[in-house]
Amino acid sequence: MNKPEVTIVMSCLNPTFESVAASVRSVLDQNFPAWTLELVLDGSTKRLHEDIMSSYSDRRIKVRYYADNMGLTSRLVNAVADAKTPYIARIDAGDIWHGEKLQKQIEFFRCNPLVIVVGTQVSYFTAPKKIYTESSFSTDDSSIRLRMTRRLGIFEHSSIMFRNKINYRNRFKYAQDLDLYIRASKLGKLACLENVLVTCKHNENGITINKKPEQLFFINLCYKDLELGFTKDLAAPDRPLRSLDWMWKYAQKYFIKYMNETHSFKKLAYLCITVTLYPPLGLFYLKRISS
Questions:
Q1: pLDDT in tens, 204-231
Q2: What domains sit in the chain, N to C, each tagged with a CATH number?
Q3: Which of 112, 135, 166, 194 could bridge across to 122 with cysteines, CB 3.0–4.6 Å?
Q4: Overall pTM surpassing 0.85 (yes/no)
């Protein structure tokens, strides 16, 4: 057996067995074999644990079962801290890697020793309409940094691989990936492959939809830490505008329509309705425009 070069971390809160199985299969199908998968069941059912344990005999798959939910960030911090490999990769349950994904990223790292994080382009699958769209993330370091200062997306979390020189921070309940990228940019270069090597399904039960008010707070905290040069792993401050969370319940369905819509006019209309019903999101986009 090849000595592992990449630790793949998948931490999930009671997903369906089918979503886990699809992601694990895409890892098993990688043409780069020197990996180990840390599959963390964080607050998941015992039945799911039993189903997974009975389904996989590959010794590269390490299943960690916890009845209590600690949260994604804490599980990521622990998994990365325990990793002994030179590279770390992330995948979320339900996301699918293309077979050459790890190989291409490893080859890129070997040819680019100054790069600390490398992502890939991603195709997004919207279940109701069965529509695929593709990302257009910037690929070179300077362009990625420019997008970062403008508060635009730079990577999809399930696409990244990074050198084992940095870890997540417990300070960030959400947006822990953005915080990682920002701090990584102080240690080396950022890059994104031009290849579409990951397929992600829009999850209407995910954090981006259901926890948007909290997610926005932590995204803004990432940029505030960047401006202040703050890198300590202290507890996050209290979240303002908590009293407006009830408004998101009314805006949420229009945000889902915005996420799933491909027609530009309808997409804009749904976004306008969303920010009208939940003004803090409008403030976030205004900051993005003015950056």
A1: 778 889 999 999 999 999 999 999 988 8
A2: 6-201 (3.90.550.10), 207-290 (no CATH)
A3: 135
A4: yes
pLDDT tens digits along 71-104: 999 999 999 999 999 999 999 999 999 999 999 9
CA dihedral of 80, 84, 88, 91, whole degrees rounded to 10: -70
Beta bridge partners of 201: 125
| pLDDT above 80 for 195 | yes
- Count CB atoms within 10 A of the CB of residue 166: 18
